[in-house]
């Protein structure tokens, strides 16, 4: 190989290395902190960036999207001296990459410890019943403390949620028994109310039935009486219109006597004599 070519190749390699060391491509939603000779210089934004080879180096690469951090259940003592395990989930976002890298050694561990401390302060002022029913208040108080403390670390806490509050086993058993008793009580009340409504409906039905039967009997009696009155009227009119003979009237009178005797309610008759 020509002795002149070797230096040229080495020079080309050095140039390529320098160019490669100069160019830094930062992905979207990422931030790179650059140090120059060990001192913070600047934060690279997404896209193509140029740095000074050898002098500059990438210290930290941070993701500035909203992150989710779920902590392990932690024991917390309530005001009435009961130990509950509380599981929290935290939604946070890096707003200042420089502060997140240089103001705190491990921001996740710091947030976790601050969450535990704040929970113990908040829950320590509540009894168990208040703790179980005041999640929104606990969340808001926890978020206020975390947001204020993490601001200097370049972190913004967007939301804090309590995933679970696990009371002691004996308390859980007592609560389950109470809930079963409440369910049984509601079931008994509903059953009694159902029976009461059924009896009312049955009584109403019987009442309506009796009323309808009485009305039917009344209407039948009225119609029967109307029919008999009309029949008598027709007979009377026929007798007077035709000037019936007394013998015919006597015959009709004798025909009527058996019908009078056939009634169960008639036990006494007065038969006029001649």
Throw out a few tags for this protein.
274 residues, alpha+beta, elongated, four-stranded antiparallel beta sheet, 3 domains, 7 helices, Tetrahydropterin Synthase, Chain A, three-stranded antiparallel beta sheet, 22% strand
Q: Strand count, sense and closure of the main sheet?
A: 4 strands, antiparallel
What global shape is seen? elongated
CATH architecture of the largest domain: 2-Layer Sandwich
Bin the helical content.
Answer: 55-70%
Unreliable parts:
none
Number of domains: 3
Classified by CATH, the class of the largest domain is Alpha Beta
Q: What structural class do you assign from the helix and strand content? A: alpha+beta
Spell the H/E element sequence: HEEEEEEEEHHHHEHH
**How far is the N terminus from the C terminus?**
173 Å
What percent of residues are in strands?
A: 15-25%
Rg measurement, Å: 52 Å
CATH topology name of the largest domain: Tetrahydropterin Synthase, Chain A
Overall number of strands? 9
User: What do the pLDDT scores average to?
Assistant: 81
The CATH homologous superfamily name of the largest domain equals Band 7 domain
Number of helices: 7
């Amino acid at each position: 190989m020509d002795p002149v070519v070797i230096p040229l190749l080495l020079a080309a390699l050095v140039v390529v290395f320098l160019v490669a060391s100069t160019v830094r491509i930062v992905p979207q939603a990422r931030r790179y902190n650059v140090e120059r000779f060990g001192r913070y210089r600047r934060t690279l934004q997404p896209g193509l960036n140029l740095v000074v080879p050898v002098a500059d180096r990438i210290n930290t690469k941070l993701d500035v999207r909203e992150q989710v951090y779920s902590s392990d259940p932690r024991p917390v003592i309530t005001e009435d001296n009961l130990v509950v395990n509380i599981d929290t989930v935290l939604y946070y976002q890096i707003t200042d990459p420089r502060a997140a890298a240089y103001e705190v050694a491990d921001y996740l561990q710091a947030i976790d410890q601050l969450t535990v401390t704040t929970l113990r302060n908040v829950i320590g002022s509540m009894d168990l019943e208040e703790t179980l029913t005041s999640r929104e208040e606990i969340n808001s108080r926890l978020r206020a403390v975390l947001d204020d403390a993490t601001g200097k670390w370049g972190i913004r806490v967007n939301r804090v949620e309590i995933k679970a509050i696990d009371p002691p086993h004996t308390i859980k058993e007592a609560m389950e028994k109470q809930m079963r008793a409440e369910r049984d009580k509601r079931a008994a009340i509903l059953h009694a109310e159902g029976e009461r409504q059924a009896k009312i409906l049955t009584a109403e039905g019987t009442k309506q039935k009796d009323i309808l039967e009485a009305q039917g009997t009344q209407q039948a009696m009225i119609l029967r009486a109307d029919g008999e009155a009309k029949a008598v009227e027709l007979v009377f009119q026929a007798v007077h219109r035709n000037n019936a003979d007394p013998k015919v009237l006597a015959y009709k009178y004798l025909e009527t006597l058996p019908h009078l005797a056939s009634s169960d309610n008639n036990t006494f008759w007065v038969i006029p004599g001649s």
